[in-house]
Amino acid sequence: MRATGKVVSQFAEYNYSAALGAGVIYKPVAGTIIMTAEIATKQDLDIYDAAVPIKVGTDSMGANEYAWIGPIYCDGSDIGFKNVAVGAGGFILWGLTMA
After folding, report:
1. Is the peptide bond before 71 cis (omega within 30 degrees of 0)?
2. Whole-angstrom Cα distance, residue 78 to residue 50?
3. How far is it, in rounded angstroms, from Cα 13 to Cα 80?
4. Nearest of 61, 69, 21, 24 to residue 42 by alpha carbon
5. Among residues of the chain, what percentage have pLDDT more than 70?
6. Residues 11 and 51: beta-carbon distance below 8 Å
7. Topology adopted by domain 10-97
8. pTM for this structure?
9. Taking the CB of the first residue and of the last residue of the chain, which one, N or C, has fewer CB atoms within 10 A?
């Protein structure tokens, strides 16, 4: 909460299944906290910090299932997510935005 007493965070769905293909690193805007993810094949989700993978092939994910991957605070420049599959259909991220 800010000094005004207004709640500035809200639940938001980030669905990039149509917008992103294989090899594209998506970087959420600064102030975003990613909590869960969904992807068709768990080995295809990579999480990056300054273009260096920090978590590869999220182990707890099954096919088209949600996985708790967060909280991951996004700074708008270094933290990114990528579907590494060839011909990838994309992925879905859920989280909070304070931007």
Report:
1. yes
2. 4
3. 16
4. 61
5. 55
6. no
7. Jelly Rolls (2.60.120)
8. 0.69
9. N
User: Residue 79 corresponds to which amino acid?
Assistant: I
User: Can you state the percent helix, strand and coil of the chain, rounding each to 5?
Assistant: 5, 50, 50
| Residue corresponding to tokens 């990579």 | 46
pLDDT per residue over 29-76, tens digit each? 888 888 888 777 666 778 889 888 876 655 555 566 667 788 899 999
d(CA 43, CA 77): 24
Q: Where are the domains of the chain?
A: 10-97
Residue 61 tokens, joined: 């994910």
Which tokens sit at 2?
């800010």
CB 25 within 8 A of CB 88: no
How many residues are listed for the chain in this entry? 99
For tokens 């949600």, name the residue: 66
Give dist(CA 94, CA 35) in Å, integer. Answer: 6
Q: In whole angstroms, what is the distance from residue 29 CA to residue 18 CA?
A: 19
